[in-house]
């Protein structure tokens, strides 16, 4: 489907962007896209984005460590806008430290929204409050950040399905497709969202008014999860 590489400074060390350039070369030969994790890149984001081709993905677009897509005045840098215009895609996921409100809030305010929203939930990052506890929490967080809920859903369903070249109609409730359905209950309540887990010294938080609770999950027409409360 594609190649993925992380180019954080503490990982690539003296190799800098060379490992990323080599990955793009291999992807070009294979005819697949690349997805690149740039948190604390070994150089400027402008150089990083210059290596990405149309259809390639900048992961963790709202990270706030090292060079980012937002300048010191809170504006999206022109090169990021130009990268999107030439077909580079942008994905937002948290994990423990790959998302920052100092980047996300001004970028979303200026309309620089994700193409995809995910969690990067792993054994090291999932179920930690108030960060990327689950995808349901991500839905509520981006709503608190001002995104339209329909746009949020598209970023979690239709758009990634299309990018992964899944069968036409996957990621939707289109008649005739497999019945893959997630049912949520909307709760009106005070919620705290963070860009780092509780206890992190550089944590920033915002508050929201909505939380979504998973109620039923249907996979290919079969119920595979049901909340015991319902």
Mean pLDDT reading: 94
Order of helices and strands: EHHEHEHEHEHHHEEE
Radius of gyration: 18 Å
Q: Please, what is the oligomeric state?
A: single chain
CATH homologous superfamily classification: Metal-dependent hydrolases
Notes on the structure:
With 230 residues, the protein is of the alpha/beta class. The chain has one domain (3-173): TIM Barrel (Alpha-Beta Barrel). Helices cover 28% and strands 22% of the residues. It is built from 8 helices and 8 strands; from the N terminus they run βααβαβαβαβαααβββ. The longest helix is centred in the N-terminal third of the chain and has 13 residues, at 18-30. The chain starts with a strand and ends with a strand. The mean pLDDT is 94.
């Amino acid at each position: 489907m594609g190649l993925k590489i992380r180019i954080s400074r503490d990982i690539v060390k003296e190799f800098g962007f060379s490992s990323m350039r080599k990955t793009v070369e291999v992807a070009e030969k294979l005819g697949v896209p690349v997805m690149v994790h740039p948190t604390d890149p070994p150089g400027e984001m402008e150089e990083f984005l210059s290596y990405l081709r149309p259809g390639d993905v900048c992961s963790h677009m709202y990270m706030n460590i090292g060079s980012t897509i937002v300048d010191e005045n809170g504006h999206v840098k022109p090169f990021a806008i130009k990268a999107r215009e030439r077909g580079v895609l942008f994905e937002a996921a948290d994990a423990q430290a790959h998302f920052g409100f100092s980047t996300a809030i001004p970028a979303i305010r200026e309309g620089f929204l994700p193409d995809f929203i995910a969690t990067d939930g792993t054994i090291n990052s999932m179920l930690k409050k108030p960060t990327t506890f689950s995808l349901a929490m991500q839905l509520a967080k981006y709503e608190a950040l001002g995104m339209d809920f329909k746009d949020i859903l598209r970023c979690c369903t239709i758009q990634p399905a299309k990018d992964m070249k899944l069968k036409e109609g996957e990621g939707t409730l289109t008649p005739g497709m497999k019945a893959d359905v997630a049912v949520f209950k909307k709760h009106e309540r005070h919620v705290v969202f963070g860009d780092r887990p509780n206890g992190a010294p550089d944590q920033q938080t915002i508050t929201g008014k909505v939380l979504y609770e998973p109620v039923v999950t249907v996979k290919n027409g079969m119920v595979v999860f049901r909340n015991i409360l319902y």
